[in-house]
Amino acid sequence: MDENLVELPNYELNPLGGPPLGAIETYERDGVVSLRQVFDTKWIQLLAEGMEIAINEGYQRDTAFNIATPGEPGFFFYDTFMWQRIENFKKFIFNSNVSDVAATIMRSKSLIFYFDFMLVKEPGTSNKTPWHYDEAYWPIKGNQICNLWIALDDIPVQTALRFLVGSHLWDKSYNPVHFNPAMDYADLPDQARMPDWDKEPGAYQLGFSAMSPGDCLVFNSRTFHSAPGNNLKTSRRRALATHWIGDDITYNDKPHETDPPYRGENLFHGGSMECATFPRIR
């Protein structure tokens, strides 16, 4: 294992069902926290069924992508905004404990749901998720916005997400990197491309967390992260990312292309993100 690669601290929910104070403090310090057994089997099964629906429908829609390397048996499929058309995801977003966990970790009184994003890496998929951070893609400004990333399969270290610990506190900004290596975003600002931190020398720490179904990671929108391909022979790697907007986030009308491309309804620079596309939860 790379000497810079260390396992992140992990926490279980407290007896009242929320993240403990130690988990909140770890999130604030490291930009990422690992939580165990957050979602029970019924929710994971519901999401797994929803993903099969999304995959079956995906090839008929231009917002779902299959990024496969020719000659490989697997594929890397991702889709977004499933909650608007597949009931499984809508039930999870509005009826599970996911919003409570997000609000507690961010210490946010209010909460807006931004969007959902599913990733499926089948066995034999070499394509890695490139190093990036979420805020680079989004028309937002502020700190209280997180990605709550949920495992639907066992995810060993070989396929686990990697994080540059503490990078959410860096001042340096980078351009977004498209997940499809054959594509790029339009009208990007004069900023550097995100380095490949697996290869860059430096006195930084890369954190990972091996996961089981129902575990989740919560990470800040400025935390640098990546994931290897899935070179395992039999194990899928399915995950659902849900993105949550807290108290201090405002709409930032960036001039370049953003992802997802939907900018909501009647939003204005410096105003709230709340709209029909990004509904208020609390």
Describe this structure in words.
The chain starts with a strand and ends in a 31-residue tail after the last strand. The strands form three sheets. An eight-stranded mixed sheet has the order 2-3-12-9-14-6-5-4. It has a five-stranded mixed sheet with strand order 1-11-10-13-7, with no helix packed on it. Strands 8-15 form a two-stranded antiparallel ribbon. The longest helix is centred in the N-terminal third of the chain and has 18 residues, at 41-58. It is built from four helices and 15 strands. The chain has a single domain, classed as q2cbj1_9rhob like domain (Jelly Rolls). With 282 residues, the protein is of the alpha+beta class.
Key phrases:
282 residues; alpha+beta; Jelly Rolls
Strand sequence of the main sheet, in spatial order? 2-3-12-9-14-6-5-4
Task: Outline the biggest β-sheet.
Answer: 8 strands, mixed
CATH topology: Jelly Rolls
Instruction: Report the CATH superfamily.
Output: q2cbj1_9rhob like domain
What's the topology here?
Blueprint: E1 5-7, E2 10-12, H1 21-30, E3 32-36, H2 41-58, E4 65-67, E5 76-80, H3 87-95, H4 98-106, E6 112-121, E7 129-132, E8 140-141, E9 145-151, E10 162-164, E11 206-208, E12 216-220, E13 225-227, E14 237-245, E15 250-251
Parallel strand pairs: 1-11, 2-3
Antiparallel strand pairs: 3-12, 4-5, 5-6, 6-14, 7-13, 8-15, 9-12, 9-14, 10-11, 10-13
